[in-house]
Design goal:
CATH class of the largest domain: Alpha Beta
Radius of gyration: 22 Å
Number of helices: 15
Strand order of the largest sheet: 9-8-10-6-7-12
CATH architecture of the largest domain: 3-Layer(aba) Sandwich
CATH superfamily of the largest domain: NADH-ubiquinone oxidoreductase 51kDa subunit
Largest sheet: 6 strands, mixed
Bound molecules: iron/sulfur cluster
Helix content: 25-40%
Structural class: alpha/beta
Number of domains: 4
CATH topology of the largest domain: Rossmann fold
C-alpha cells in the first residue's frame, strides 16, 4: 500500500493513537522513518489490554505493522514487548516467520517502559533529544490497538467507533470490554458487575498517570482503563490534593534529597529536567533559577518522582504539570535545542520493578486477571443515548456535519476536521438528539 493511500485511510476512518493523547495516526507516517515500533510495553499497573489484544489478534496486528513499515519504506519493524507477557509472545512467535522484516525486542518488567521515548531507547538504543519527536531519530511508534483499528479500516473500511477498556479495582468482575465510544464510565463499571461499595471514586487511566473521573464521564477513542478505588485510597487522596496544599508541603518538607531527580525517567536519559531543582525554585518563589522552572517542559508526567521516589510524599509531578500547562497557555515555547547529557551510567539500576510499584501504590489486591469479555448485544440500546465528543484527539476539534433531528446509520460520519485532527463517526444507527460545542448526542435505535 502507498503511504498516501494509508494516510487517507487513517484520516477517513478517524484513527488516532488509542493509548495516549490521541495523536492523529496519519500525521505520524513519514518516509524519514527507518524503524516502526509496535508499543506493546503497557506498563500502567493493572492494565491488561495490549497483551490481551496481542494474544487475540497477533496475525492482524503484525500484518498491519508490516504494511505500515512497507508503506513508509522503513527497513524494519520492531514489536517491543515485555518478556513477561509470555502468552502474547507465544502468539507472536506463531506468526512472525511470515514477516521477514519484523523482529521482537524483549523489554524488562519495569515502569514506565511504555513511555514512547523510553521505549525507543529500550528497543533500539536511540535517545530522542529533549523536546523532539521520535521521527527525529528515524522512528515511528504505534500502539497495539491503533494498529488493530488501522487493520479494520484497511480490510473492512470500518471507522474507529469502539474502544477496548479494562475495568479494574473495586468491581465484582474485572475485565476488558469492547464498548461503543460515547457511553458513560458508569455503564462500563456496571458491565464489570458494579462497584463493591458505595464509597468509590473512578480514575480514567491507571494509578500512575490516570486522572480523577466522574461517573458520567464518557468513553473516547483514548480511554484505556477505568480504575475504581475506595474514596480514601492513597492514590485517590494524592490526586485530589490541591496545588495550594502541594506548594505548602513542598515549602515545609522538601529536604532537597534529590531522590526525585535521581529516579526521574527522563533525567536518566540525559534530558534536562530536575524535579528537585523545580521544587526548590517553586517552593521559594525564586526567579533566580528560571532554567529549573522552564525545564518543566521536558517532563513526561510519568509521575515516578511523585508516586514512587519522594519519601516525603511530596508532589513534584503535579506541580510541574500545573506549571507546564501555564507555560503553554502563555505561549512560552521550550528551547528548541536544550543542553542534554549522556544516558546516566546507573540508569539500569534505577528502573522500577512493576511488582514493587504495584505494592507501593497499594493496589496489589486488584492485580488479578481481567480477561476480554463479551458485552450484551443490546448494551448500546440500554444506554439509550451516546454522547460523542468532538475532541478525542490532539489538534482541532471536529466540526459537526450533521444537524439535530438527522437520522444516522451505523458508522456514518458525524463530524470532520480540516487541519490536524480526526473524523468522528457514530457506532450505532440512531437520531441526532443534540449538538453542542464539544459533543453530539445520538439516540440509539439499533
Ligand atoms: S524526593 Fe521529595 S524531598 Fe527529595 S528533593 Fe525531591 S521532592 Fe524534595
Ligand atoms: S513526572 Fe517526575 S519522574 Fe517523570 S519525567 Fe516528570 S519530573 Fe521526571
Amino acid at each position: 500500500m502507498q503511504m498516501t493511500r494509508l494516510q487517507e485511510l487513517m484520516k477517513e476512518c478517524g484513527v488516532v493513537g488509542a493509548g495516549g493523547a490521541g495523536f492523529p495516526s496519519y500525521a505520524k507516517l513519514s518516509d524519514k522513518a527507518d524503524t516502526v515500533i509496535l508499543n506493546c510495553a503497557e506498563c500502567e499497573p493493572l492494565f491488561r489490554l495490549h497483551r490481551q489484544l496481542m494474544s487475540e489478534y497477533a496475525e492482524e496486528i503484525l500484518t498491519m505493522l508490516d504494511t505500515v513499515r512497507s508503506a513508509v519504506g522503513a527497513k524494519r519493524a520492531v514489536v517491543a514487548i515485555k518478556s513477561v507477557y509470555t502468552e502474547a509472545i507465544e502468539k507472536i512467535d506463531e506468526h512472525i516467520s511470515s514477516f521477514e522484516k519484523v523482529e521482537v525486542a524483549h523489554l524488562p518488567e519495569v515502569y514506565p517502559a511504555g513511555d514512547e521515548i523510553i521505549l525507543i531507547y529500550e528497543a533500539t538504543g536511540r535517545v530522542v533529544k529533549p523536546g523532539q519527536l521520535p521521527i527525529s531519530e528515524g522512528v515511528i511508534v504505534y500502539n497495539v490497538e491503533t494498529m488493530l483499528n488501522t487493520y479494520f479500516a484497511m480490510t473492512e473500511n470500518t471507522p474507529v467507533c469502539y474502544k477496548f477498556v479494562t475495568v479494574a479495582g473495586e468491581v465484582k468482575e474485572p475485565g476488558t470490554y469492547r464498548v461503543p465510544i460515547g457511553v458513560p464510565l458508569k455503564a462500563l463499571v456496571e458491565l464489570a458487575g458494579g462497584e463493591n461499595s458505595q464509597d468509590c471514586e473512578y480514575l480514567s487511566g491507571g494509578a500512575m498517570m490516570g486522572a480523577l473521573a466522574k461517573k458520567n464521564d464518557i468513553v473516547t477513542k483514548t480511554t484505556n482503563a477505568v480504575l475504581v478505588l475506595p474514596k480514601n485510597h492513597s492514590v485517590i487522596m494524592k490526586k485530589k490534593t490541591s496545588t495550594k496544599i502541594n506548594i505548602y508541603r513542598a515549602m515545609s518538607a522538601c529536604c532537597q534529597c534529590r531522590m526525585c531527580t535521581d529516579m526521574c525517567t527522563r533525567n536518566l536519559l540525559g534530558h534536562p529536567i530536575e524535579p528537585h531543582a523545580f521544587m526548590r525554585a517553586a517552593a521559594k518563589g525564586m526567579t533566580s533559577d528560571l532554567t529549573a522552572m522552564l525545564n518543566a517542559a521536558y517532563c513526561s508526567q510519568c509521575r515516578v518522582c511523585e508516586m514512587y521516589a519522594c519519601q516525603q510524599g511530596l508532589s513534584p509531578a503535579s506541580l510541574i504539570g500545573v506549571f507546564r500547562n501555564k507555560l503553554r497557555e502563555n505561549g512560552v515555547v521550550p528551547e528548541k535545542e536544550p543542553k542534554f547529557t549522556d544516558v546516566n551510567e546507573y540508569r539500569k539500576y534505577r528502573t522500577i520493578p512493576m511488582e514493587r510499584l504495584i505494592s507501593r501504590l497499594g493496589v496489589s489486591e486488584y492485580d488479578v486477571e481481567a480477561p476480554i469479555k463479551e458485552i450484551p448485544k443490546d448494551f448500546a440500546k440500554k444506554c439509550k443515548t451516546l454522547k460523542i465528543m468532538l475532541r478525542q484527539h490532539i489538534g482541532q476539534p471536529a466540526k459537526p456535519i450533521v444537524k439535530k433531528g438527522d437520522e444516522v446509520e451505523k458508522y456514518q460520519k458525524l463530524a470532520s476536521c480540516e487541519g490536524l485532527g480526526a473524523e468522528i463517526h457514530t457506532p450505532c444507527k440512531g437520531v441526532v438528539k443534540d449538538i453542542k460545542e464539544s459533543y453530539i448526542v445520538v439516540e440509539v435505535k439499533e
